[in-house]
């Protein structure tokens, strides 16, 4: 971008040169820093559980890592509830959209549907269908989503579980969120 380039105030005025500069600015964005800030903000949000949402996120990721999950899935486990800082209701879909450009589609799908899979363990208490996961039966990642929900997520409210801290996952998180985003 030239030093005399115009800063536009309306998108319908953008030119090719300006679009290039915007794309460069977006590419230089510190996405990993913003995700880490978001995750840290989960500290203290308890919602009646035995641990706060940051510990829950780290515990879910710890269980995934110890089970041999790959990096994308570990980051999905770490970030699956990150949108609870905004809303506990449709947090799954919001978190899925945050990770979508950086992890493989299978992980995005699991993050998006994890609530219905986890519902097997508590939906009946809310008057909802505890078999909500069955609507996804036949999906190629159904079994992995069940493992995610049953073995990692719904068990990760244990204050005595030896949980890795967020700092343990930071290098992997930085690697994943520094990838060129998929469209």
Protein model, in words:
The protein is mostly helical. The chain has one domain: Hypothetical protein af1432. It has eight helices and no strands. Helix 4 (71-79) packs across helix 6 (105-118) and helix 6 packs across helix 7 (142-153). The model has no long low-confidence stretch (mean pLDDT 93).
Task: Give a short synopsis of this structure.
The chain is mainly α. The chain has one domain: Orthogonal Bundle (Hypothetical protein af1432), CATH 1.10.3210.10. It contains eight helices and no strands.
Number of domains: 1
Distance from N terminus to C terminus (CA atoms, Å) equals 24 Å
What Rg do the Cα atoms give? 19 Å
Helix/sheet category:
mainly alpha
Which segments are poorly predicted (pLDDT under 50) over 5 or more consecutive residues? Answer: none
Order of helices and strands: HHHHHHHH
Query: Overall mean pLDDT score?
Result: 93
What would the CATH topology be? Hypothetical protein af1432
- Percent in strands: under 5%
- Give the CA-based shape: globular
CATH class category: Mainly Alpha
Give the name of the CATH architecture: Orthogonal Bundle
Helix content: 40-55%
Let me know the largest β-sheet. none
| Strands, total number | 0
CATH 4th-level superfamily: Hypothetical protein af1432
